[in-house]
Amino acid sequence: MFDRFRKKTYASVGTPEFIVVGLGNPDRKYTLTRHNSGFLCVDMLSEKLNFRVDKLKFKSLIADATIGGHRCIVMKPQTYMNNSGEAVRECANFYKIKPENIIVIYDDISLDVGKLRIRRKGTDGGHNGIKSIIYHLNSDQFPRIKVGCGKKPHPDYNLADWVLSEFKKDEQKALEPALENACKAIELLLDNQIDKAMNLYNS
Q1: Which residues of the chain have pLDDT under 50?
Q2: Which residue, 8, 98, 102, 150, could crosslink 50 as a Cys pair with Cβ 3.0–4.6 Å?
């Protein structure tokens, strides 16, 4: 499902306006886990627009890409989930990008696999990656795209074990169109059309 990415570069001009950051954990063993939904979205975005997220900077793998006419720094923090904010803060400070221009994509256990929830801002909702970003930016005023990764099978199931488990084969089929819609939503958010994105893709 996620092994067909093309390897092409994509040039950018001008000053970066936005940061697009997908959250996840860097080790290969986490590639298809629920907690890596943000990474998977960035991988699909890079495939569709033919750029490579492979430069190590700001404690992240990054790409400098133009998306819908907007120059963006696309990030996959390599800090592990709980310290994602360190990477985002370094990049935001370097390019002087305000929180409102930082789009974060991440997993949400309250949503079924295949569902999306786009928000203009908000609390961390118990997500440690978002908690770290809010702490390091000293702001929760950044738009986010939540990718459904499914609820725990039963209340006593360990949360860490659940989010670090891999999507099942049938779930991968449901996840792929959701990630495609997330990529489309990113372009709308970059054009300041968040209400349209919410109307089209919130489910």
Answers
A1: 1-11
A2: 8
Show which residues are catalytic: 35
Q: How confident is the model at residue 12, as a pLDDT?
A: 53
Supply 79's token pair.
């800090």
- What token pair was written down for 89? 């803060």
So what's the pLDDT on residue 14? 72
- Domain assignment present for residue 6? The answer is no
Encode 87-118: b = buried (16+ Cβ within 10 Å), e = exposed: bbbbbbeebebebebbbbbbbbbebebbbbbb
**pLDDT score at 105:** 98
Residue 7: Cβ within 10 Å count: 10
Can you spell out the DSSP letters for 116-165?
EEEESS---TT-HHHHHHHHHHT-----EEEEE----SSTTS-HHHHHTS
Residue 7 lies in a domain: no
What is the count of structural domains for the chain? 1
